[in-house]
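Form 7-S
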Amino acid sequence: MKNTKEIIESISSWKRTNSCGELRKKDIGKEVVLMGWVQSRRDHGGLIFVDLRDCNGLTQIVFDPEESTEAHQKVRKIKNEYVIAIKGIVVPRLPGSENPNMPTGDIEVRVKQIKILNISEALPFNIDDKLEISDNLRLKYRYLDLRRPKMQRNIKLRHQICMEIRNYLNNKGFLDIETPFLTKSTPEGARDYIVPSRVNPGKFYALPQSPQLFKQLLMIAGFEKYYQIVRCFRDEDLRADRAPEFTQLDMEMSFIDREEVFSLIEEMFVYLFKKLFDVEIATPFLKMDYQEAISKYGTDKPDLRFGMEIIDLTKVFNKSSFKVFQEVLSNQGKICAIKVEEDNQFSRKKLDDLQLFISSFGAKGLSFIKFKEGKDFQSSIAKFLSSEEIEKIRRETKAQQGNIILIIADKKEIVYETLGNLRLKLANDLNLIKKEKEEYNFLWVTNFPLLMYNQEEKRFEAVHHPFTAPLDEDIKLLDSDPLKIRSKAYDLVLNGNEIGGGSIRIHNNDIQKKVFKLLGIDDKKAEQKFGFLLQALKYGAPPHGGIAFGLDRLAMILAGARSIREVIAFPKTQKATCLLTDAPSEVDLKQLKELHIKLDL
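Output:
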């Protein structure tokens, strides 16, 4: 400890003149003061080179014993991640030693004085983007992980995204209005995180899954254009693009229809991509009906950067003698396929692996047909197919020599989900999405079903949420055929990722009550859960609608990251734990007693 105190110095008389990523040729001859962390030190006998890093970049600094013996001796004490300050002169690098990969690669700083501001123990991992570090280790020492240039870039990009969104919406007359974090538990899909109230024993708040009800109340209050970048909370199973606490760009507008929402959001993304990347985004974005998306791509968030659409072959086999296909058709199932241009990738082992892959989605089997020269073909079900069926398949799929057709026969939902996921897997396996040139493919998916039927619980559920308005022409079906009702809901998809979703809302009290009734929410329960909204709808609610974007997911895509944890400063694990702070943790029994809570473990 004595040695530590001796080498740590004060910067009270020094003022930083530049960041470590700022200096260029124009600064040659300038005396500068730089401060930062030691990225690396290279001792060449006489000269000692140090890469000095701060949040803006790296500068190479040079210690020459002929320039300053004291500084040269002191730099020998430093190690990686020591915090230092230096005074020196900006000079050009020697010819041939320039580094074109560094913004500061044409210059270096010859040091006259150095102060050691703090020391560092040996790190659990080096501050280096090139190293593979386990996720758990990174999250445990997140403050060190965040020093890495890649993570610094990601967090800065997230900041820029938020800043430019705010600039755009502010200029469009939107108001940034906060909504409560401690609110009422309402059934919106996922489990709520609940918070006990000490001053109201036995009662609980819920953390908001979204500001949905409050933004509708703001429209009823007459604000017309609202937004906020807001934290939301859902107690659900986690994946790479989900977290227990996440951030939304939340928006709501009065007196608008879907086309006006589309136009505003498209203009926002044009503005955002121009500001961030100087990239021109083409508008209007493509629109696709929900049913078309499902039938062609097996998902409501199709990736359109490659083809391989799902092809319906059900009619081809309507008179098939193949018993498996007969059973599927007799049970109102589907027989569909995807075509892959090159069949030379499909060895027996590969096809066996695909069989295993599709089984995870409930599909019972994968059939294939490889088209060869002329009328020759190879198929796993060749003995069950007639020559007429083969020709019909060839025509329906527009198959050529060297193509392979992969066929699934099962319940409609299983067929679409399986082929949709198989399509994505093959696109990655066969490198059909070209990574060398980033492509931003936007798509609006519209006309979602209003309701779906839960077979296990024998009841209707909202596809989006209970406040989504039905299409005007489908309102009459509320009393007769609810599953045929289409909604005024819409999702925005980017490169196969849903980045936002919204709808025009129900602003009529009678229609809202009818939807609640279909969802099994009677008047008493509706009053208990949503009484404040139903009351507000009685007092001149305007037509309104909006959209919410997953900001974490959007930042992940724009940063080219593999998980939203790469763009969140202090994320949770997939088990909703924080390895840095060891949360969640036990609390003192005294706290539980104050909250009138007794644990039953």
